[in-house]
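Dear colleagues,

For the upcoming journal club I promised to circulate an example of a predicted protein-ligand complex. I picked one with zinc ion because it came up in last month's discussion. The inputs are reproduced below in full, followed by the predicted structure.
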Amino acid sequence: MTGRVLFSSQCAFPFFPAFRTVSSSASRLTKSVRFRHSLASFSNCNSHVHSGEDKTTQKDPFVITTPLYYVNAPPHMGSAYTTIAADAIARFQRLLGKKVIFITGTDEHGEKIATAAAAHGCSPSEHCDAVSESYRLLWKDLDVAYDKFIRTTDPIHERIVREFYEKVLSRGDIYRADYEGLYCVNCEEYKDEKELLENNCCPVHLKPCVLRKEDNYFFALSKYHKSLEEVFSQNPNFIQPSFRSNEVQGWINSGLRDFSISRASVEWGIPVPNDKKQTVYVWFDALLGYISALLDGKQEPTLENAISLGWPASLHLIGKDILRFHAVYWPAMLMSAGLNLPKMVFGHGFLTKDGMKMGKSLGNTLEPKDLVNRFGSDAVRYFFLREVEFGNDGDYSEERFINTVNGHLANTIGNLLNRTLGLMKKNCNSTVAVDSAIAAEANVFKETVGELVEKARAHYENLSLSSACECILEIANAGNLYMDKHSPWSLFKKGGASSESAAKDLVIILEAVRIISVALSPVAPQLCLRIHSQLGYSEDTFEALTWEDTRWGGLKAGQIMAQPKPVFERIELKHDGEDESGSIGKVEKEKKKIERQMVAET
Ligand SMILES: Nc1ncnc2c1ncn2[C@@H]1O[C@H](COP(=O)(O)OP(=O)(O)OP(=O)(O)O)[C@@H](O)[C@H]1O
Ligand SMILES: [Zn+2]
């Protein structure tokens, strides 16, 4: 049965009969799909919608948001994935010198929360306090440096929701009607029969939807059909990656149905202004968290004040499961309230387990805390950002995880630094003999590093985080090749001019590693800090680094290196060396090669 409005008391807007959605699981992504879009070049998509209101300037902060996670259960690797990616993007923007406001938080109202609290024998607010805290703790463990953490149970947020609701009401965009339809409690959403699986099961949660009949307040989404079409045609980059934009435009083209923004049966929520018997629908409430988060506690909690502190957001980073809320509902709500639209919504893919979305409701999750405890935060951050092409789905396997981080972080980057520092200690008293700019005059390797850094920057700007990592790893690969080709250890043995040349080679390599430590810092901050320290810099100078520091020439004569110490401990395998033929065997062979190399270089 398709949901339908049974009775409308003041319905001023026609309904589009069939709002056909394309379920996210039905839209299979191919690995070959690529997107090209630069945040730097993105123009604000508001001017045509509310011309004159857009006051965007170069000085505006870069405001990035993650979804506000639903506290029906503690975080899992899926929630961590979005947050790690947002953190890497925020760190990159800070390196570029932008003022960044990185917003995350928790969505704490609704039926599922009340049910989860009851199941744990506590009140909804006790439940929210505990689960919200578990998100904060995880972000700490994962080195997530957010600027704002908003909880939708914060009274300040409630003020913003009420003011926004009243604005939309005064615009004539809210009306009351009876509604009957199929509801997925896990999505907290009425579903269209066409998007459901057999037995009316939700395609995301695989649980049957229930038939519900309610007297609700509705938001006149259908009224914004034309304006939304305009947003999309004039701002082709609004939704990224571009293949998701096509999906959203398909939804819009097939008609938009008004949606209910209140619940009569849910007590745990923000009361509807002027009707205490109903609470505001959890999505209508939660999306506003992106705005209320901007308040800094120093001002009256009004929409105007919040907006003045950084709206519109530069980038909403979300999973593809909540694309419709961010790409259709949210822009229409903002237009109704006369507010600017976010500049971009990026819907990334799912981390999957056996092909199914990892999620709290399905319970098939991977514990990020467990991964951090076993492998460290850099390994977790690097693996997911490097190995899952941002925008597409990705499956986790422990074997691939260990091979990737051992191969890239320990054997390639870590070993390059370690072997060079070893030679430096033995032959140069751990002291940089000559400025890196002089050492590399007319050196082709320096040009290669410069080109790769430029590519990495462009990839970061395009949100192609995996490709950015790839370019940075290429620098380390080129460095290892340079070392092997020049074999400074044998030049030192010759002495004289050869020794001088070998000392220069070491400076050249270390300068490349220094550049890596800046360029990779958005993804693996702790590892890069350790590299920075090994190169003889103090910790506080790390905080002050900018992307300008990826330019060749930072290492200066006289700089004293720290004692060589591995910056990334190789993860030891359970079946050490047993599987010489498989991919684990390859990493083991690499490890043995490094051991042989170290003997040769002494
Ligand atoms: N498997 C996943 N892969 C990637 N991101 C995910 C995944 N699961 C959750 N997320 C992130 O969390 C957001 C959804 O947050 P929510 O708190 O609803 O978690 P959830 O585990 O998806 O919940 P549920 O399983 O109840 O739908 C997604 O939009 C995405 O940003
Ligand atoms: Zn669902």
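Two points we might discuss: The CA atoms of residues 105 and 149 lie 5 Å apart. Confidence is low (pLDDT under 50) at residues 1-37, 40-58, 576-582.

See you all on Thursday,
B. R.
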